[in-house]
Hints:
Blueprint lengths: L3 E3 L5 H14 L1 H12 L2 E5 L6 E6 L4 H4 L3 H5 L18 E4 L2 E5 L8 E6 L11 H10 L3 E6 L12 E6 L13 E7 L2 E6 L9 E5 L5 H11 L11 E8 L2 E8 L21 H5 L1 E4 L2 H6 L2 H11 L3 H12 L1
Parallel strand pairs: 1-4, 3-14
Antiparallel strand pairs: 2-3, 4-5, 5-6, 6-8, 7-8, 7-12, 9-10, 10-11, 11-13, 12-13
Helix pairs in contact: 1-2, 6-10
Amino acid sequence: MQIGVNNSNIKPEDTIDLFDEQLEEWQLFSNNYDEYNDAPCERILCGNVFWEIDKILLNYRKKSITADLKTIEEGKRACFLCPASRPAEQRWLEWRDYEILVNPYPVSPIHFTVACRMHVPQELGDRIMDMSKLTDLVEESCVFYNGAKCGASAPDHMHFQIVDEFHARNFMISLEYFHKGPRIGESRIYMPHRNMSPFGYYLMDIRSEKDILPMYRTIIGSLNPDDGASEPMMNVLAFKAGDSTRIAVIPRKKHRPSFYGAGTGQMLVSPASVEMMGTFITSREEDFERLNENVILRIYNEVGYSHEEFQVFINRLQS
């Protein structure tokens, strides 16, 4: 029988207690964290932009990296975020209309999944307000949203993930390194200088909660909609920065690079929010070894928008 904790007023220490208790109770979770702590990891510095990149080898992430979206769309796999398909050992905290779970396949020293209690599609919309609230729930964290075609391994079930704020380090730079966009209420939209990132994105510097939705809707209105989709392809992340909350919206051109695959000359690298933030997850030693600055910049160029391409969105935003 699965055990839930029903408390709409949970505090940061409750999430840490859940994490620690699951380490004690759940062998798979504990084993994978041991593997994470011992995993090969290397730092890569980009020569032409101020952007830090880490690569890490985690064999247990292969299932997520190779998730078949067509199979999921056709309903040919059980949803692993729904209670009926979860491991018996998995506990949770109830928060609003979500359940907070530890992620048993970590990519960070802390890693939670925040799954909607209803089985509804991965679509952000007004739930961006929940992202902002979640940054208060786990201290020194980064909350991220993978669009349905941008790295979500459960595109049929609405969810966020929470990792250590270190993963957002490339987005924590001073606002002096950004171009100023429109001011909305007490808050403002920013875009990074060309030498501060390998792709274009929007940064929402939020000084008042009431500015989040109008600011987000303004940004979404400037982006290319995915044909037939309810929202553009994108990755979104939220974190604290001093007295403000920052939310970055990273538009995407593609789900995976052209050389994605397990064949000769191919790589199993499937960029999601964590990769767009600067941490590349690999599940095969050959991919870990091949991943260098040139390959990473090629991936960013294929799945993200260059600063030149992003200027089209900026022009719409400012018109």
